[in-house]
UniProtKB/TrEMBL annotation:
Domain (Phosphoribosyltransferase): residue spans on this chain: 53-166
Protein's name in the database: Orotate phosphoribosyltransferase
Organism whose genome encodes this protein: Methanosarcina barkeri 3
Catalytic activity annotation: orotidine 5'-phosphate + diphosphate = orotate + 5-phospho-alpha-D-ribose 1-diphosphate
Subunit structure: Homodimer.
Its biological purpose: Catalyzes the transfer of a ribosyl phosphate group from 5-phosphoribose 1-diphosphate to orotate, leading to the formation of orotidine monophosphate (OMP).
Keywords for the protein's UniProt record, in alphabetical order: Glycosyltransferase, Magnesium, Pyrimidine biosynthesis, Transferase
Length: 185
């Protein structure tokens, strides 16, 4: 696929995803407090999308399309929102899955990870919605403590409120499937 064909394919994918997110009810209007603490007049509920098989499959295909162009060997997701997305993308790409827990459990293996991770690994992390990028940035730091590297974060929706810049500070590229400005048109 040449650059022009790729650009056209990405635009087609974006429009399909916007339609699917609207159809499954993932966009809600009202007064909401986000994980970042910010207030918002709209809420993007990707958990609604990831529990809808058709929308989840669409997200997985679109993420896989991008992942196949990246030099990575593991697909990772942070609990809870990133797990179904990363799982679906892992199935689509046939790359191993890594789940990053938000905290160490005090039972079982007592690990922050479900799945295998080695210092030589190169990961792409999937995120449902990025606002400031703070949640995923914490997970990136935990992964990097193992010696492994994260160069990319694929977000289903980027709210365009600083995540791109905040991730760039730690040498990670944010790859949104859709931006909030496109979604809310």
């Amino acid at each position: 696929m040449n650059k022009s064909e790729t650009k056209n394919e990405l635009e087609t994918q974006k429009q399909e995803l916007i339609a699917a997110l609207k159809a499954c009810g993932a966009i809600r209007y009202g007064n909401f407090t986000l994980a970042s603490g910010k207030k918002s007049k709209y809420y993007i509920d990707i958990k609604k999308a990831s529990t809808d098989p058709k929308t989840l499959k669409l997200i997985a295909r679109q993420a896989a399309f991008r992942i196949k162009q990246m030099d990575v060997n593991i697909v990772a997701g942070v609990e809870l929102g990133g797990v179904p997305l990363a799982t679906a993308a892992s199935i689509e790409t046939e790359l191993p899955l890594l789940i990053v827990r938000k905290a160490i459990k005090d039972y079982g293996t007592k690990s922050r990870f479900v799945g295998d991770i080695e210092p030589k690994d190169r990961l792409v992390m999937l995120e449902d919605v990025t606002t400031s990028g703070g949640s995923v940035r914490n997970a990136i730091e935990v992964v990097r403590e193992t010696g492994a590297n994260v160069k990319y974060v694929i977000s289903v929706v980027d709210r365009e409120e600083g995540a791109t810049e905040n991730l760039k500070e730690v040498d990670v590229e944010l790859v949104p499937l859709v931006s909030a400005s496109d979604l809310l048109k």
